[in-house]
Design a protein that fits this description.
alpha/beta; 6-stranded parallel β-sheet
Length: about 800
């Protein structure tokens, strides 16, 4: 069998090796011998701290011989990326000092947190925020012990990490986060390290296109640093094993100008990296100055850096007859048995002594002054940059009065209009009032989702090539503030980066495909949950998601476009940070959107379809209803002063329409039946107050829903979700109708019937649940079933629903 090595030319293998004297695209040796000595010493200090975090629970300065008692009982963390991250961080610091740069740092391979925490501690920021982690021997002991330790901090760049707005736990989002951070921050440079394992993820692969979304006049810049250390957990990385030429062509094809720094010899690598970073910063400034001087934006080929260095740089090359440095074994804890294996303990001690801590720290454990001065000071420190604590620089939105965009509703259920366009008008003027700190994001769907009114104030950003036909409704502009790309991952990442650096935004998506960002939502919600317990983290604007093109109006696109399950994902997250709203009409949608845009540190999920719908509440009633989040609609009820026979409840626009229509059917057939109609806007009202801050008390829930009467609940999503929310309530006679995965190319009514949320199914269900109607309701049930047959026959013959269905209006006049 031919070996892998035999398939490559020896010269090719040599060019892909990370070992040897540095080679680089940019030539030069800008560091003086003294600067070089100090830079190498500072890097040794960072690497010493990284090893201490992974291994030590005592003896932080190695003043005593290292023993098993000094080693943590459970070894966690990742060494592999840490030396490279610290190496990059140090060289960025040099440029920050030299040019007074405003810069933040993002570690895509966030598992290399020791390489970020170490510099943050040496800069003094960590001790300022956490005084018990002081810059002395005692503080260093606490700093080491807390890492990946119960009661301490996690092994990634978590919210507890000063200067971090990107945890890097789930890989793939560093460039989109960086781009969002750079938007509307013209003086900011975001250094974004991309791990070569991370580069294999779908979200990262598509996010190289951020180069086409940065306006050199009004935005800052992103400096990507692709860190090729060659291995993931247990495999080579793809980009580290393709030829230099192929990788260069790939990056150029994405629109970047790559500059390579490759090798393992520290002194030459420091010189090469210093020259390269300075060249890139100079190039960034030149692009920006050219466009700003001319007043015309164009798309530069922004610089980027490809850093090739050994995996676990600085570790012993071999231990116990196996490769360590430069191989996958260095990815996590490089020496895993130091607690029990004396030889491994000896290797670790020697390795840590090679960093010469006695030359780096004084007797009290503080970094010596000549090294301390290498780092920037104050808010120029990347670990203390206010943009990385976005709430500290956030300006609240200036919001117009949402009532000015109201739909005029004289009588409930008699007017039909589209729910989303009034919101589009509102967002248009939100944009107008906040042209430097508000953007709208979405995957090619702003017009489709009926928000196109925003183009009256700001177009879609476009800085690539133009065709003449783009002027015919393309809505493109180089200064546009609507950001669209057919990648939910990239759009969500940009929005998160924008919010985390103190700005405000809005995201809209088709309901079925918002699932693409399920895990991104999870990560952001977890981030906010932790931030809520960190007093130094200032609150940021909430992440607002409009989910439209919903399941009940995807009858034309078919089964694949029918999935309301994102709500189930949201329900799994902390009640501290999640909110779900299902406004039934346009005025409720406006009231909800206004509330969400004013809120902080939440993920607000708003579900509203974009098609024609009946309107129920005037603006005053909508404000009242949405403020409560749940309520009885008196005009749709007839149980005033008596116990109801049934509670008809709904959440969502189409389910509400069908539930309201079902009450009419029941009252026409049984004039003496008493029905209470309850509509839910704030879904978490259904949960007990002990489980969610918005939840109803048991007394209030029982008052609305009774303790023993049947509840027919017509729901937008999967029925089980309502049972999850209300399982602990006293009234267990809850019967939920919702989407049951029964769809295809249907008419709206046929889709509703297939899933039994239609008015006829609900009326039949009520008859079966009300004891006295069970005996007298047979004829009514037959009538309703015949109606269903007729509806289906009409749809199959004409391809649309019958006028009896599409023209239905609430028949009773409200006083």
């Amino acid at each position: 069998m031919t070996s892998v090595l035999e398939l490559e030319e020896p010269s090719t293998i040599a060019t892909l090796s990370a070992y040897g004297i540095a080679t680089s695209t940019v030539e030069g040796s800008p560091l003086s011998p003294e600067e070089l000595r100090k830079t190498q010493a500072y890097w040794r200090a960072c690497n010493y701290l990284a090893l201490g975090m992974i291994y030590l629970q005592a003896n932080p300065l190695l003043k005593e011989p290292l023993t098993a008692e000094h080693i943590k009982n459970r070894l966690l963390g990742h060494w592999g990326s840490s030396p490279g991250l610290a190496f990059i961080y140090i060289h960025l610091n040099r440029l920050i000092k030299k040019f007074e740069l405003n810069m933040i740092f993002m570690a895509g391979p966030g598992h290399g947190a020791p390489g970020v925490l170490g510099p943050g501690y040496l800069e003094g920021t960590y001790s300022e925020i956490y005084p018990e982690k002081s810059e002395d021997e005692r503080g260093l002991h606490e700093f080491f012990k807390q890492f990946s330790f119960p009661g301490g901090i996690g092994s990634h760049c978590t919210p507890e990490t000063p200067g971090s707005i990107h945890e890097g736990g789930e890989l793939g989002y560093v460039l989109s986060h960086a781009c969002g951070a750079a938007f509307d921050n013209p003086d900011l440079i975001v250094a974004a390290v991309v791990g070569d394992g991370e580069s294999e993820t779908g979200p990262l692969a598509t996010s190289w296109h951020i180069s086409k979304f940065l306006n050199p006049i009004r935005d800052g810049a992103v400096l990507p640093l692709l860190h090729l250390n060659g291995y993931k957990i247990n495999n080579p990385t793809l980009l580290s094993r393709i030829s230099h030429e192929e990788l260069e062509n790939l990056m150029q094809g994405y629109g970047w100008t790559p500059h390579f720094v490759e090798g393992s010899d520290p002194e030459s690598m420091h010189q090469a990296m210093a020259a390269t970073v300075e060249h890139c910063v100079t190039e960034i400034r030149a692009h920006q100055q050219e466009c700003r001087a001319r007043g015309a934006a164009k798309r530069p080929r922004w610089p980027m850096i490809v850093l090739r260095s050994p995996k676990g740089w600085g570790a012993p090359r071999e231990v116990g007859g196996h490769f360590l440095e430069g191989f996958w074994r260095a990815h996590q804890v490089p020496l895993t048995d130091v607690k029990k294996n004396p030889e491994q303990l000896r290797v670790l001690e020697q390795w840590m002594h090679e960093q010469k801590p006695e030359e780096l720290f004084d007797e009290n454990g503080k970094l010596i002054p000549e090294l301390k001065e290498l780092a920037p000071t104050g808010t120029r420190r990347m670990s203390a940059n206010p943009h990385a604590n976005g709430g500290s620089v956030r300006r609240p939105l200036r919001l117009p009065n949402f009532c000015d965009y109201a739909v005029k509703v004289d009588q409930p259920g008699t007017l039909e209009t589209e729910n989303v366009p009034p919101l589009g008008n509102f967002l248009r003027d939100v944009m107008k009032e906040n042209l430097n700190n508000f953007r709208i994001f979405g995957p090619d769907e702003t017009t489709s989702n009926k928000l196109q009114a925003v183009y009256q104030v700001s177009k879609k950003f476009w800085i690539a090539e133009y065709f003449p036909e783009d002027n015919d409704g393309g809505e493109l502009a180089t200064d546009g503030r609507v950001i669209e790309m057919l990648s939910e991952h990239t759009m969500e990442g940009m929005l998160e980066g924008y919010l985390l650096t103190g700005r405000n935004g809005f995201f809209s998506s088709y309901e079925a495909f918002v699932h693409v960002i399920d895990s991104m939502f999870n990560q952001h919600a977890k981030w906010l949950s932790i931030c809520n317990h960190l007093s130094w983290r200032q609150k940021i604007a909430s992440l607002n998601l409009l989910i439209t093109s919903t399941v009940w109006r995807q009858d034309h696109n078919g089964f694949t476009h029918q999935d309301p399950g994102f709500l189930d994902v949201v329900l799994n997250k902390s009640a501290e940070v999640t909110r779900i709203y299902l406004p039934p009409d346009a005025n409720c949608l406006l009231a909800v959107a206004n509330h969400c845009l004013r809120s902080e540190n939440y993920v607000n999920v708003i579900v509203s379809d974009k098609q024609l719908h009946l309107q129920y509440l005037d603006m005053n009633a909508a404000i009242e209803h949405c403020t409560k989040g749940i309520g009885i609609w008196g005009w749709a009820s007839n149980d005033q002063g008596v116990e109801p026979d049934v509670v008809m409840a709904s959440a969502g626009d189409i389910p509400t329409q069908e539930a309201v229509a079902a009450t009419v059917l029941l009252r026409e057939e049984f004039p003496d039946v008493k029905i209470r109609f309850v509509n839910v806007v704030d879904l978490f009202k259904l949960q007990p107050s002990k489980n969610h801050p918005h939840g109803l008390t048991d007394a209030d829930f029982d008052s609305l829903f009774t303790v023993d009467k049947p509840i027919i609940f017509n729901f937008h999503g999967y029925p089980y979700l309502i049972h999850r929310l209300a399982y602990a309530r006293h009234n267990q006679r809850l019967h939920v109708r919702g989407y049951k995965e029964k769809g295809n190319i249907n008419t709206p009514m046929e889709l509703a019937m297939n899933n039994e949320i239609d008015r006829f199914s609900l009326a039949i269900d009520a008859i079966d649940r009300i004891p006295r109607l069970q005996k007298i309701g047979a004829h009514a049930k037959e009538k309703f079933r015949n109606k269903q047959i007729a509806c289906r026959a009409y749809a199959y013959k004409n391809g649309i629903d019958s006028p009896e269905i599409t023209g239905w209006r609430w028949p009773h006049r409200s006083e």
